[in-house]
Amino acid sequence: MAQALGQDKSTEAEIDQRLMLNYASGDTSAFETLYLKHKGGLYRYFVRQIGDKQLAEDLYQETWGRIIKSASSYQADAKFTTWIYKIAHNLLIDHVRAVKPVDLFSETFSEEQDAEALLPSDEMSSDRAMEDSFKASLLKRCIALLPMVQKEALLLNMEAGFTASAIADIVGVTLEATKSRIRYANQGLKTCVMNKWQEVQNER
């Protein structure tokens, strides 16, 4: 079963590569297929990273613009998803450096950064739906508090499904640094959610 899944992933990557090469040769329908396939994940990447939907939309559109301009230089040995997220990552870095210095890229947690975790079991099952919704909002808030490099690694891993090796290639750091970012992000999230949930419980 695992082997079959691996083959499916490989086939998917080959399809993307073929579509990109076809587009580079003038097949506009190939680009439309790629766009429809990857637009959701790429847009969410920007929204979750910067939290500003209008800015996310601008950077998202610019990414596709760069993909179009770079089509002729695309190499088939590069996995398409890794290639486009590397373009997106570089655009994001350029933007953040332009508006806010590198303190956003600190490897350590900021003081206000509580982390997220598995939440305690509910005491009142009658309000389960409301509590679940509230916990989800806490998780989202805690993800936003993560240092940017950790948040990016975590989201690329959890949402986009990239391996640590692929993420290292996208962001241009070592595999060990990438694994550390993912590990610290998970630890941070667990602490953050636990702390914030405890604060809510104490206020009741």
UniProtKB/TrEMBL annotation:
Task: Give start-end of the signal peptide.
Answer: none
What is an example of a GO molecular function annotated in this UniProt entry? DNA-directed RNA polymerase activity
Instruction: Give the InterPro entries listed for this entry.
Output: RNA_pol_sigma-70-like, RNA_pol_sigma-70_dom, RNA_pol_sigma70_r2, RNA_pol_sigma_r2, RNA_pol_sigma_r3/r4-like, WH-like_DNA-bd_sf
What SUPFAM superfamilies has UniProt attached to this entry?
A: Sigma2 domain of RNA polymerase sigma factors, Sigma3 and sigma4 domains of RNA polymerase sigma factors
E.C. designation(s): 2.7.7.6
User: What are the UniProt keywords, alphabetically?
Assistant: DNA-binding, Nucleotidyltransferase, Sigma factor, Transcription, Transcription regulation, Transferase
Nucleotidyltransferase: present as a keyword of the record?
Answer: yes
Coiled-coil regions listed: none
Record domain RNA polymerase sigma-70 region: where? 34-98
A Gene Ontology annotation in the biological process aspect, one of them, is:
DNA-templated transcription initiation
Q: What class of enzyme is it?
A: transferase
Q: Which Pfam families match?
A: Sigma70_r2
Q: Which family does it belong to?
A: Belongs to the sigma-70 factor family. ECF subfamily.
* Name this protein carries in UniProt: RNA polymerase sigma-70 factor
